[in-house]
């Protein structure tokens, strides 16, 4: 393949040849131009689902979507997700879900994430069960067979695109809400991480080079865990300590695995993004960002955390013979948690602004430099 078949991977009109040398030798001194990502391919679960689950199974009802889209938008959120803010920040249109065949345009990438997706395939899957049948391996198969194989005219996009991953929390949830003990869930982490990295290798082998990989958030701060395990020991910010400890073990193992992957995959630029820490700040210092009641769901029903396993945001519940609609709190923009599991648009914006700087990343690469394998450390 000649050099000319590749698009200029940079926003400036640098001569192609010079640029390809810069990219080939990865000289950090030359790594000063913004990366140009013509497309994003995202793999993940509900934190990054922009309508995949809605297209395949069931659309989230109103008031989901009320803040930004002013109607349900396939997202479990009042507005935009981190992936939406990311796309907007690099001037890409909102990412189309792979599963949505209506008016879909994969020119600028595709989103394979679905609500309730896991890394390890689960036995209990929708429509009869709980988790998404589109586990990470299935998403990679969709990428390989459904997009990669049919977008040949834009083959160069597959090298220059940004590959993002936000998945793993549901693997922990499956254990916590199943019959596993904390120790058993914790002990399952190496297998989950190993499966994750095998999937990343498969995508690399198809030509992907720039990876932006989120760790898992502070699950012990969510109403889902706090309401289901009311006797769990809390840390000084009201989060369930042991549940977060398992998430942190997941993150430590992921970080180590990605360090190894950087050695194994010679051409990959792999950024580990510590979204756990960025999200945890919303619970440890909510006032700084204008938030209140960080552990209480905005859209939910009942109890200390405004969360009930039997009814979700936008559903109805019968209380003392009266049907009650489970709607939004008055002002989602001052709340961290939307529905007990997912964050509000306001929280997602704060988190995106933090992580895009590179301050939460290993190596500390900002989003606009995430195509460079070697980036000068400060
Ligand atoms: C897809 O989007 C691109 C850019 O946004 C546009 O140029 C192209 O015409 C669109 N294709 C279809 C089939 O709508
Ligand atoms: C937990 O164990 C019980 C009894 O063995 C079983 O009926 C139930 O399905 C299990 N729950 C999950 C989520 O695996
Ligand atoms: C989880 O396992 C790791 C070892 O892989 C251990 O260091 C850690 O203490 C365990 N944490 C919990 C909460 O069991
Ligand atoms: C991940 O685990 C599942 C279930 O064990 C397995 O079928 C699949 O092949 C694994 N994926 C990879 C890429 O190793
Ligand atoms: C339902 O009725 C009981 C008994 O009258 C009362 O104590 C309780 O507060 C009511 N619950 C709600 C949510 O109104």
UniProtKB/TrEMBL annotation:
InterPro entries: GDSL, SGNH_hydro_sf, SGNH_plant_lipase-like. Keywords: Glycoprotein, Hydrolase, Signal. Residues 1-31 form the signal peptide. GO terms for molecular function: hydrolase activity, acting on ester bonds. Pfam families: Lipase_GDSL (PF00657). SUPFAM superfamilies: SGNH hydrolase. Belongs to the 'GDSL' lipolytic enzyme family. This is Uncharacterized protein. It comes from Clitoria ternatea (Butterfly pea).
């Amino acid at each position: 393949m000649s050099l000319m078949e590749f698009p200029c991977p940079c926003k400036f009109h640098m001569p192609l040849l010079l640029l390809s040398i810069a990219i080939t030798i990865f000289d950090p001194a030359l790594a000063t131009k913004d990366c140009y990502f013509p497309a994003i391919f995202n793999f993940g679960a509900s934190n990054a689902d922009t309508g995949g689950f809605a297209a395949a199974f069931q659309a989230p009802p109103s008031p989901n979507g009320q803040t930004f889209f002013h109607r349900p938008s396939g997202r479990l959120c009042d507005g935009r997700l981190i992936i939406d803010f990311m796309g907007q920040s690099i001037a890409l249109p909102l990412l189309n879900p792979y599963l949505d065949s209506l008016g879909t345009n994969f020119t600028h990438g595709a989103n394979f994430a679905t609500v309730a997706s896991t890394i390890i395939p689960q036995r209990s899957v929708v429509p009869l069960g709980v988790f998404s049948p589109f586990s990470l391996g299935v998403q990679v198969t969709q990428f390989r067979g459904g997009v990669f194989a049919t977008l040949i005219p834009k083959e160069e996009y597959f090298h220059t695109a940004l590959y993002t991953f936000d998945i793993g929390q549901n693997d922990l949830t499956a254990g916590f809400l199943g019959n596993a003990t904390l120790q058993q869930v914790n002990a399952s982490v190496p297998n989950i991480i190993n499966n994750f990295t095998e999937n990343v290798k498969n995508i690399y082998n198809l030509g992907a080079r720039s990876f932006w990989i989120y760790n898992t958030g502070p699950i012990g701060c969510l109403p889902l865990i706090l309401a289901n395990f009311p006797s769990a020991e809390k840390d000084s910010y009201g989060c369930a300590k042991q549940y977060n400890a398992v998430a942190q073990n997941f993150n430590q193992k992921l970080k180590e695995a990605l360090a190894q992957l950087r050695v194994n995959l010679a051409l990959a630029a792999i950024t580990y993004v510590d979204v756990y820490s960025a999200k945890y700040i919303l619970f440890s210092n909510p006032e700084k960002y204008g938030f209140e009641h960080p552990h209480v769901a905005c859209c939910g029903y009942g109890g200390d955390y405004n969360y009930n396993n039997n009814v979700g945001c936008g559903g109805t519940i019968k209380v003392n013979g009266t049907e009650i609609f489970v709607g939004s709190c008055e002002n989602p923009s001052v709340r961290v948690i939307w529905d007990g599991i997912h964050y509000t648009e306001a929280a997602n914006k704060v988190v995106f602004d933090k992580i895009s700087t590179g301050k939460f990343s290993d190596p500390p690469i900002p989003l606009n430099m995430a195509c460079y394998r070697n980036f000068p450390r400060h």
